[in-house]
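I have been asked to look over a protein record a colleague put together. This is what I was given:
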Amino acid sequence: MNAVAVGPIARRREGAGNGVALRGADWPAFWQQVCARLRRDGYRPNTLRLYRQILRDRRAFLRDRHGLARPGGITAATARGFLEFLCEKNVSWLWMATAIAVLRNAFDRLGGMQITARMVTPRRNWPLPETLSARELRLLLDALPSPRDRLLVALLAGCGLRVSEACRVRWAEFDRVAGALRLDDPSGLRSRTVAVPQGLRPLFEGLASISPPSHPLICGRNTGAAVPKPLSARQVERVFKAAAQRAGILKRVSPMVLRHSYALRRIVAGDNICAVQQALGHRAVETTLRYQACLPKACSPADPVSPALALRQATALLGRLSFSAPDRRSHSTAPLGSVRHAAERTQPRRGVDKLQFSLVIFSSRP
């Protein structure tokens, strides 16, 4: 009969009934039993040191506050008192959760007690997502003269892509008929299709017509290679960090901040929360619901215009703007496109105006 390898989690479940003896045991003997059991279950040395530190604090608390010298005298009341003692020391939520896990594992699972049956493990208090206002996005675009970097902003703030997806996507994955990007996950479990906003589709179509299908949308500096390598996520973070410093934006600007701005803009515009979840690629809808807590803060003090009014103004502006295809003769330095007014006057071909380009991104909806 072939032997079957059993992992640490399976060993913990199989040996859950083989506990440690608490009756009559002192703290050194109790720790030797717990340590031997944890080693057999596959716990790491760093985890064992963490268990020993918390159990030492527990022993000192029982000895100083309740006069108990043995671990068998612990009760649910003394366990709650120990947690209150940790709160008085102003420990972090992570240390509190670790202390509860150690007590639950050492005394309840191994010792057969029920001192943590009614204890709730604290969860991390996730901060609200940081977003950029329309004014801050215009300042960021002013500090990004490179057409490649502005296209990167279009992918992150206009389509809501992750930085890894923006660096990985290639022109072959752009469907010109449907006007969408097909994002293939390497694992094949979270592949999805993201619609390109109407205001940015002429830009993508023009660049796709002059770019080989095998080339990435965001290329690095190795222009001499047959198939250039895409820009790395770390390089993207450096680009936005330097641009934020040049623009004088005090908040931390990262690719994730632009993705948050896209999600918040969709929710402010009244889109279905499930549609936003699908566009962002979230597994759980609870992750997408976090953006609803940002709705009262959607109007930044630096941008006094309300989101609804800014959306109407930008939509009206889109009706008077059009993107032209990039210049085929100079693909390496071709601008993202030129904005042409409905009037007869035509602007010089110096790339997309940053103010108008930011309004396109903030008002674009799939």
